[in-house]
Amino acid sequence: MEDIRKYFKQLEKPIPLQEIEAAEFKMGFSIPKSYRDFLLLGNGGFPNDEKCCFQINVGHEYYGDSISDFHGLASVVGSYEGGVESEHDDGYPYFYHYEMLGIATTHLGGGIYIGYLPNNYEKIFWINYVIGQDEIMPVKLSDSLDEFMQMLISDEQLDV
């Protein structure tokens, strides 16, 4: 994994490996390696303004969104536990059905997720709760966290 610190204007203090391992034990699975490595560099953080936006094509519509913040370990674990305890929140299905962990929040109210089971391991997805209908479907953004970080652009570069 490349050194993704260059994409951040602020990173929180790194989290000890023992805390990550304790959280993994509690959840019953390992956090994907790339996000685990990120947590060891900084326990969440805020991306640089010039590398915080992304755009995607969903059907025949183009969407642009931007990362508000990347989650630390407590938020990742808390969102997973909340999904396990309750199948719905405000009428929306929880993302744990899709075998993903929430790793970032977007400015439009959506989220960035990373797959943690073999069929989606390390893949990065976007869920936008604003455009979601009865069923919220994740949209694959990239095959890895590195690839996702490299595709981020500034808001001036958005073509939507």
TrEMBL record:
- Specify the domain of life of the species encoding this protein: Bacteria
According to the entry, every stretch annotated as the Knr4/Smi1-like domain falls at 14-151
Per the UniProt record, one Pfam family is SMI1_KNR4
Q: What is this protein called?
A: SMI1/KNR4 family protein
Give the source species. Spirosoma profusum
Lineage, top ranks: Bacteria, Pseudomonadati, Bacteroidota, Cytophagia, Cytophagales
